[in-house]
Every structure is written in C-alpha cells, then in structure tokens.
Write a structure and sequence with these properties.
There is one protein chain. By secondary structure, the chain is an alpha+beta fold. It has two domains: about 1-95 and about 240-275, Up-down Bundle (Four Helix Bundle (Hemerythrin (Met), subunit A)), CATH 1.20.120; about 95-235, Severin (3-Layer(aba) Sandwich), CATH 3.40.20. Helix content is about 40%, strand content about 15%. It has helices spanning about 1-5, 10-30, 50-60, 65, 75-85, 90-95, 110-115, 165-175, 195-210, 230-235, 260-275, and strands at about 100-110, 125-135, 145-150, 155-160, 220-225. Strands 2-1-3-4-5 form a five-stranded mixed beta sheet, sandwiched between helices. Strand 3 (about 145-150) and strand 4 form a beta hairpin. Helix 2 (about 10-30) crosses helix 11 (about 260-275) and helix 8 packs across helix 9 (about 195-210). The chain starts with a helix and ends with a helix.
C-alpha cells in the first residue's frame, strides 16, 4: 500500500506482486516442508497459511488497492492511510469483511429480556434474532434462512434486507423498522428506537462492533433490488468476482478473480515452479 501511495508501483504491479509472492511462499513450502511424494495434482496449504489465499483475494479488491471506479481519489487516499495504520483486528476486516446473517430462532423471551436488561416479560416462546457469521459470497445470502445481513469492513457498515415475504421477515421489519413492508423503510433515517427484543438485539450488535473500532461508520440500510448502495455492498463480497474499473489503465490481469479462481491460478503457478 505504501508503494502504491507514493507512486512507486501501479495497481496492476501491486496485484501481480501479491500473486508472485504468494506463489513463491507456497511453492517453497511444497518444496521444502511438504511430505515427500505428495501429488502435484493437489494444492497443499500449511495450517498456518490456509487463509493466505483468502486474504490475498481481499487485498487485491480492498479500497486501499483498488476500490473500483466508484471510489473517489480522496476516499482511496483515506483508505490507504487507515490501512497502513490499522491494527490486527481492523486489518482482518479490511482484507475480509465480516458478514453476519440475522436468523430467526425460537427461544424463551424471558431469557432474552434478562440478557438485554429489559422489563420482565411473561414466559412464552417467541421469534428472536440470532447472528451467525458466514462467508463473504453472494450464494450465502439465503433468503430462506436470513431476514437480514450485517456487513462491516472497518469503513462501511451495511444492513442488507433481502426480498423475502415470509412471516419472519415481516415480523423483523415490524419490530426493527416499525413498517409493514420493505418499500416503506426510510433508508436515509437512522434505525428507530423500538421497545422490542429484535430492535435491541440489532442495536446491541451494532454497538458491539462500534466498540471494536476507533471510528464508527454509518449503518446503511440496503434493500435488495431497490437501492444503488447494493452495488457497493456486493462489491465487498470478496469471494465473488469483482468488476474491473472500466477504461482504467491499471486494469490488472488478476484484478477480479473469485476466491476459487485464485486458488486454481495459484495451484497452476506452483506446479509450474516445481516442474
């Protein structure tokens, strides 16, 4: 990032350098540390480096390197400065955003009330939210099980509302936004303060993330198929293919691979070095 910031290398050169160094590291492990006689047809990743290809994929797509054509010069400079000074926790979400699926679970409401220090409720079973971290890929956005998705990468935070007509989705909209349909959500306004367990769970989750960051990001509510911010949200799903900057002189050979495509390319290059 520092070389890119001072103009020593272009975006394309940075990305090619990342690929080359990753291939060199994994090829050296294969040559000197892997069990003798292991098949070259298998990509072997040591336990300590299993996430390296994933983080390399994210590094090639993050705002500090290539945030896409919609990113302004000032925003990119800001991302580079923050990335250079980021700690371990911040660096992790920059290279691989945290994506949480909000699911509905049937639990005892009095237990939730106790955890959130709410007033005493009568004992009854009810729908409440459960946050589960999932991989950053579009096919993980399962409309059947998720009523909403919360994504954050240290710079942005999105609350993604999928198109879902289930009763659980309607209850979520009613108890978190105070509306009856997705179309009625005011995406410009802050999340309303509603005295419901679901609203408190969402706000507690966001507050917990804020405490981990030195800077708080606005919660952008994005409705599937309705808001322009959906393009930015989906660009942060780093396991998927990311579109190249149209007409950019720095359109890189490895600019927008999926995670699987990158693994295949790394495997091919490692085999070429070992042969």
């Amino acid at each position: 990032v520092s070389q890119l910031r001072v103009g020593e290398k272009t975006v394309q050169q940075i990305k090619e350098s990342l690929i080359t160094r990753t291939v060199s590291i994994l090829a050296s492990y294969r040559r000197h540390c892997a069990q003798p006689g292991s098949s070259l047809g298998q990509l072997i990743l040591p336990e300590a480096l299993k996430l390296l290809p994933m983080y390399v994929t994210g590094a090639m797509k993050c705002d500090a390197v290539d945030g896409g054509p919609e990113l302004t010069i000032d925003a990119k400079a800001f991302a580079q400065i923050r990335t250079l000074g980021a700690g371990i926790g911040m660096t992790q979400v920059i290279l691989y955003p945290r994506l949480l699926r909000l699911e509905v679970r049937i639990v005892l409401l009095t237990l939730i009330a106790k955890i959130l220090s709410l007033k005493q409720y009568d004992k009854e079973n009810t729908d409440v939210l459960n946050a589960v971290q999932i991989r950053c890929a579009a096919h993980r956005l399962d409309n059947e099980s998720g009523v909403a998705y919360l994504l954050e990468n240290g710079f942005h935070m999105f609350l993604y509302i999928p198109s879902n007509t289930s009763s659980s989705q309607q209850n979520f909209l009613r108890n978190v936004f105070g509306v009856e349909s997705v179309q009625q959500i005011n995406v410009e306004a802050e999340l309303p303060d509603l005295y419901t367990a679901e609203s408190r769970i969402v706000k507690e989750l966001i507050s917990k993330i804020y405490k981990e960051r030195s800077r708080t990001a606005k919660v952008n509510v994005v409705r599937q198929g309705m808001d322009k911010m959906e393009l930015i949200f989906k660009s942060l799903l780093y396991e998927d293919k990311k579109s190249a900057a149209v007409g950019s002189p720095d359109s890189a050979k490895y600019e927008a691979p999926t995670y699987v495509d990158l693994l295949c390319h790394l495997h091919k290059e490692i085999r070429a070095q070992l042969n």
